[in-house]
Amino acid sequence: MKARVTVMLKSGVLDPQGEAVRHALGALGFSGVEGVRQGKVIELDLAEGTTEAEVDEMCRKLLANTVMESYRIEFP
């Protein structure tokens, strides 16, 4: 079983990496980009029977800094 966790900075939290990407895109001639938020995707290979609650606990304890980041769990 697989799970995909998408972690993003919460709105209102400064994203210096996203701003650097936006600036670099502008320097490359892509002037239509007004904002970039950068995050991470974590794919987990899980043992059969692992619950969504367990994956949620993994996120809260290790995979996301819940003070600054939000996360979404998907089971593709």
UniProtKB/TrEMBL annotation:
Localization annotation: Cytoplasm
In terms of superkingdom, the source organism counts as: Bacteria
A cellular component term from Gene Ontology for this protein is:
cytoplasm
Q: Name one GO molecular function term.
A: ATP binding
Q: Which reaction does it catalyse?
A: N(2)-formyl-N(1)-(5-phospho-beta-D-ribosyl)glycinamide + L-glutamine + ATP + H2O = 2-formamido-N(1)-(5-O-phospho-beta-D-ribosyl)acetamidine + L-glutamate + ADP + phosphate + H(+)
Keywords in alphabetical order, please. Answer: ATP-binding, Cytoplasm, Ligase, Nucleotide-binding, Purine biosynthesis
**Enzyme Commission code(s) on record:** 6.3.5.3
According to its UniProt record, in which pathway does this protein act?
Purine metabolism; IMP biosynthesis via de novo pathway; 5-amino-1-(5-phospho-D-ribosyl)imidazole from N(2)-formyl-N(1)-(5-phospho-D-ribosyl)glycinamide: step 1/2
Record's Pfam families?
Answer: PurS
GO biological process terms held by the UniProt record: 'de novo' IMP biosynthetic process
Q: Has UniProt tagged this entry with the keyword Nucleotide-binding?
A: yes
Q: What PANTHER family is this protein classified in? A: PHOSPHORIBOSYLFORMYLGLYCINAMIDINE SYNTHASE SUBUNIT PURS (PTHR34696)
What does the similarity note say? Belongs to the PurS family.
What is its biological role?
Answer: Part of the phosphoribosylformylglycinamidine synthase complex involved in the purines biosynthetic pathway. Catalyzes the ATP-dependent conversion of formylglycinamide ribonucleotide (FGAR) and glutamine to yield formylglycinamidine ribonucleotide (FGAM) and glutamate. The FGAM synthase complex is composed of three subunits. PurQ produces an ammonia molecule by converting glutamine to glutamate. PurL transfers the ammonia molecule to FGAR to form FGAM in an ATP-dependent manner.
Q: How does it assemble?
A: Part of the FGAM synthase complex composed of 1 PurL, 1 PurQ and 2 PurS subunits.
This one is known as: Phosphoribosylformylglycinamidine synthase subunit PurS
Q: Which organism is it from?
A: Histidinibacterium lentulum
